[in-house]
From TrEMBL:
<dbReference type="Pfam" id="PF00072">
    <property type="entry name" value="Response_reg"/>
</dbReference>
<keyword id="KW-0597">Phosphoprotein</keyword>
<keyword id="KW-0145">Chemotaxis</keyword>
<dbReference type="Pfam" id="PF13690">
    <property type="entry name" value="CheX"/>
</dbReference>
<dbReference type="InterPro" id="IPR050595">
    <property type="entry name" value="Bact_response_regulator"/>
</dbReference>
<feature type="domain" description="Response regulatory">
    <location>
        <begin position="5"/>
        <end position="120"/>
    </location>
</feature>
<protein>
    <recommendedName>
        <fullName>Stage 0 sporulation protein A homolog</fullName>
    </recommendedName>
</protein>
<comment type="function">
    <text>May play the central regulatory role in sporulation. It may be an element of the effector pathway responsible for the activation of sporulation genes in response to nutritional stress. Spo0A may act in concert with spo0H (a sigma factor) to control the expression of some genes that are critical to the sporulation process.</text>
</comment>
<dbReference type="InterPro" id="IPR028051">
    <property type="entry name" value="CheX-like_dom"/>
</dbReference>
<dbReference type="InterPro" id="IPR028976">
    <property type="entry name" value="CheC-like_sf"/>
</dbReference>
<dbReference type="InterPro" id="IPR001789">
    <property type="entry name" value="Sig_transdc_resp-reg_receiver"/>
</dbReference>
<feature type="modified residue" description="4-aspartylphosphate">
    <location>
        <position position="55"/>
    </location>
</feature>
<dbReference type="GO" id="GO:0006935">
    <property type="term" value="P:chemotaxis"/>
</dbReference>
<dbReference type="InterPro" id="IPR011006">
    <property type="entry name" value="CheY-like_superfamily"/>
</dbReference>
<dbReference type="GO" id="GO:0000160">
    <property type="term" value="P:phosphorelay signal transduction system"/>
</dbReference>
Amino acid sequence: MKKTKILIVDDSPFQITMLEDILNENGFDVVGQAQSLEEVIEKVNELHPDLVTMDITIPGTDGFECTKEIHKIDKNIKVVVVSSMMDEELIKKAKKQHMCGYIQKPVDPEELTLLINRIMADEELYMELEKVYSKIFKEAVLDIFNRLTKTVPEFTDESNVDKAMKSEGVSVIMGIIGKYSGRMILDISLETAEKLAAVLLRRQPKSEEEALNVMSEIANMFSGSACSMINKKNKLFGLRVAPPTTLHGESINILKAKLEDTYSANVKTQFGELSINVGFNRGEGEWMSII
């Protein structure tokens, strides 16, 4: 794999030296430096970097104007803000300028390295996710069931076809964010949900809402455990789960998610059947301002 070519843009010779040392020590190829808008334009045209680290404060201009000029030359060049300032307004502006990330000075070498590697990750990383995610989500479901109920469910009707779903009554949707975006859906009938909740609570649920809350937490454990296992295989994924959204009723239809990769299965348990559906997209997921 070729080294990432990096141009450092900063008005401080000290910061340039610090960044150059960090980047070189971590396997990147620092091809040059610039301290003004004119130098940025000249160096980008001359050196064709893959990525630019960009200070916000540049004499006579700023990092946002420099980024505009960089993207006029080559819109594929990645720009990462490296600045002593960080606030919500600056982060919003950086996103609008199509910058790829934001690191605050003083720079932590591990954070900067991880952020750049994550930004520059290519098709090989997504192919790695394709190979492991279905097996890992299945493993997570089996493990959580075994730990919570001392039972081993059976997986049937496993499929990699993206299709619309008709809910059995309760659907918990877990968003997944990180290098790639995705989601997991746990679907179950209310009757099965109440039976499973009774086992976990060691009493009958006091209300339908309590049973639904238990299902939300089970879905959270399934997806959280799976994402942790995937991240353990390769920390560049940086996957995390968003808070669950729980839908329930007699006529819930879940449309195709139009995901590039999906895995679905029915899960037979001693308490009734449930189903899971997991999927991911190649496109960039979360905009990572902080690792």
